[in-house]
Specification:
Blueprint lengths: L1 H13 L3 H8 L3 H33 L11 H23 L5 H4 L25 H12 L4 H17 L10 H6 L6 H9 L12 H5 L11 H5 L10 H6 L4
Helix pairs in contact: 1-7, 3-6, 4-6, 4-7
InterPro entries: Fatty_acid_hydroxylase (IPR006694), Sterol_Desaturase_Related (IPR050307)
GO molecular function, one term: iron ion binding
Organism: Synechocystis sp. (strain ATCC 27184 / PCC 6803 / Kazusa)
Length: 246
């Protein structure tokens, strides 16, 4: 429920921006349908499959491990927000390799940072991200997973935000506090603008900085980044949803 409320709150805030309202008003119906289906799959169907299938699968192969590990709440949060973020960095970077990018390419058809498009993907490509398997496993193993679930929730909210047009002004004190370590919307905008070159992290800039894939934002605003963004694919809506491989 909190995630749903956050989504609509972010969406309402983005509508306060005239440029964003203009962009959404001109967005083709095919993109609205693709984004709506993708949000439904990633926000509802995949979590449901995690509960009904993945966790039941773990209960079959490791039944004695269920809720058998104790970890203090702060450690759980660090595990979910930091360690899993590092796994995500490598899986996301792998999806930008020549071999795997066709699986991920639909996500990079977005032409402007738009939180409604944050889940745009071929419906089965999410299975290549670690969240589907690792989150279920860790929640299955932990005796009390509230700290880990909080980390998951924060990551989800940041995912919405970094795909949105809700940037923080560079002159604001909050930008100074967050910019050195957190992936901001303008950082992820550069990832979409310079596809495959960097900013692969989800939460933290640390991994990109360590591995030499950090792209520093030197542009004055997000609109500059959005200019010329998005790849063009000669694919039907059906292909984008189910089979983008050509």
């Amino acid at each position: 429920m909190a995630s749903l409320i956050s989504f609509w709150l972010f969406f309402a805030l983005s509508l306060l921006q005239p440029q964003q309202r203009q962009f959404l008003a001109s967005k083709p119906w095919q993109d609205w349908l693709l984004d709506g289906v993708s949000l439904g799959i990633q926000g509802a169907i995949i979590p449901l499959l995690q509960l009904l299938l993945v966790i039941n699968f773990y209960s079959l192969i490791i039944p004695h491990w269920q809720h058998s590990f104790n970890l203090f709440a702060g450690g759980q949060f660090l595990l979910g927000f930091v360690a899993i973020d590092y796994v995500y960095y490598w899986s996301h970077r792998a999806l930008h390799s020549k071999l795997l990018f066709p699986i991920h390419q639909v996500h990079h058809t977005v032409s402007q940072m738009d939180m409604v498009s944050c889940a745009r993907n071929t419906f089965w490509s999410s299975l290549f991200l670690p969240y589907v398997w690792l989150n279920s496993l860790i929640i299955y193993l932990l005796h009390d997973a509230r700290g880990y679930i909080l980390a998951i929730s924060c990551t989800y909210l940041l995912d919405l935000w970094r795909h949105s047009s809700l940037i923080i002004n560079k002159k604001c004190w909050l930008h100074d506090c967050l910019n050195s370590w957190l992936i901001l919307p303008q950082d992820h905008g550069l990832h979409h603008h310079q596809i495959g070159k960097g900013n692969f992290g989800a939460n933290l800039k640390l991994w990109d900085k360590i591995h030499g894939t950090y792209l520093k934002n030197t542009l004055p605003n997000q609109l500059s980044i959005s200019s010329g963004m998005g790849i063009k694919l000669e694919l039907t809506l059906w292909q984008k949803l189910f089979w983008p491989l050509t």
